Structures are given as C-alpha cells and as structure tokens.
Amino acid sequence: MISSPAPITARAALSVSAARSPASSTVPATPFLRFDGVTICLGGREILSPTSFDVARGEFVCIVGPSGCGKTTLLRAASGLVTASAGEVRRNGVKMTAPSREVAFVFQDYGRALLPWRTVEGNVSLALEAAGVPAAERAPRIADVLGKVGLGKHAQKFPVQLSGGMQQRAQIARCLAQKPELMMMDEPFGALDALTRQSLQDELARLVRDDGLTVLFVTHDLEEAIYLGDRVIALQANPGPGRPSLARMIDVKIPRPRDQLTTKEHPDYLQLRRELFAFIEQGHD
Questions:
Q1: Which CATH class is domain 10-22+30-102+183-284?
Q2: Where are the domains of the chain?
Q3: Is the pTM of this model over 0.70?
Q4: Rounded-to-integer distance, Cα 106 and Cα 110, Å
Q5: In sequence order, which residues have a C-beta less than 8 Å from that of residue 259 and are 6 or more positions away?
Q6: Consecutive 10-residue runs of the chain (285 residues): their mean pLDDT?
C-alpha cells in the first residue's frame, strides 16, 4: 500500500496519479487538479521543489510533513493565492493564477476566521454577500448549510457564545455556503480536544460524501490523515537535488464509511499507521 522506499520523482508521481484514473483509448481525461512541476521560492529559499501529482474530482487528499516543509504553501498555490516560481497548477485544465469562488479555504484558527460582531448566521451570510447572492436567496441557503453542520439551533449566537468545535463548524458552513468545487483545509482540527476532533472528522467525511467535494487537507496527525484520506501525500523539508518535496504518495483503500473504532482496528489501517510512522522516524522528514 506504501510505495517503494525511494522518494517519488515528479514523473513517478504523475504515473501513480494517472493509474488512479480510468484508462482511455484516445485522449486521457483532464484531471480535476494537476500540479505540474510546481516549484515555489519565498524569500530566496526554495519551499517546494518541482512537485507533480494529480487529484481526481471527489478525492480526499491529506498532506502530512514536518513544519516548514511547504504544506500550507502547497494549499495556497492550489487556491491561486501563491504563484508558482516554476511549473503550474491547473484546475479543470485551466491554470490557477488568482483566487476563485469555486475554491474555499478553512483555516485552523477559527477564532480569527469568524467576525465576532456577527452572529453565526451573519458569518455564513458573509460568503453569500461577497458573491452577490440576492438577500431573498440567502436565508434558505444559510439554513441549509447550518443544518448540515448541526448549527441550525445556534444561528443567532455570536462566536464567543460557541465552543471551539461549534466555531469551526460555523467556518465550514460559511465555506459550504459558497458551493465550492474544491475545499482547502489547513489543520482545521488541530486546536480541538480529542473527542471534538473525532466528531468533526466524521462530520466532515459525511459532508464531503454528500456534497461531492474535492478536499486537500493538511494535518500533522498521521492517524487523522489515514482515517480521512483516500490518499496521503508526505512532504519533506529542505528540498533540493536528490531530495524532492514530495517524498511519498500512499493510497488508503480502507472501505468507507469509516468508524472511529472499527476502522482503527482494521489491519490495513494498522499497517499504514506503522509504515507511515516508520517513514517519518527514519529521517525522511
């Protein structure tokens, strides 16, 4: 289930990704999201070495690696917030050069992501106002997404009146309200307690399945990556010749829907957990 010990090159990464798509007798289908030799340099330092992989529509891809290896930078490049120094990111075959309303971004710091002077309903409405949705159409859409994330009875509360988990649900609801094709999530559950984190993991998995979203999800939690992902991409720090940013690409073939107890006792889960932890401990991070 985990690739060979050698790091994955850009060409190998593309071939692994292509193997996930149905074969075509003529022209291969355009991938939903493609990183093609993406290199990013910031402040004179190479954050991402040439990185190539494809993401299929509806796929949940988790990204792991040590602090400073470029996980958040990769998300920003995929959302058009950062321009690649070399190579390109394409969504539906179109080069990403600027932010798009079809891409939503969920941040770790939900406290700063929400406007404290607006209610939950008002915070969700913000995404619709920015998109120019008529006032008459906002209420039913807001009620729908708040119901999906379990905040239907808390629409008139302010962020300070909510728990951390509820605040993060509100941020996710705001993103869902804009009806994105692609959801970027940067350690969204990192600041939550274990029980709340598990609850939101299951809630997110359900929402992604129901709405057909494509997700790029950054996490430092290797177990979370295996539990949520269809695939796990492992990045390593200090890229350069012979040390590419993309070190491993792991398919997670554990059946869905998944469960916090039975899934984590599944032989495939235990094997992936053991091998991924070993990979990190062996100094590939």
A1: alpha beta
A2: 10-22+30-102+183-284, 114-179
A3: yes
A4: 8
A5: none
A6: 40 37 51 93 85 94 88 91 91 89 88 93 94 92 94 96 94 93 93 91 93 94 96 83 76 94 95 86 58
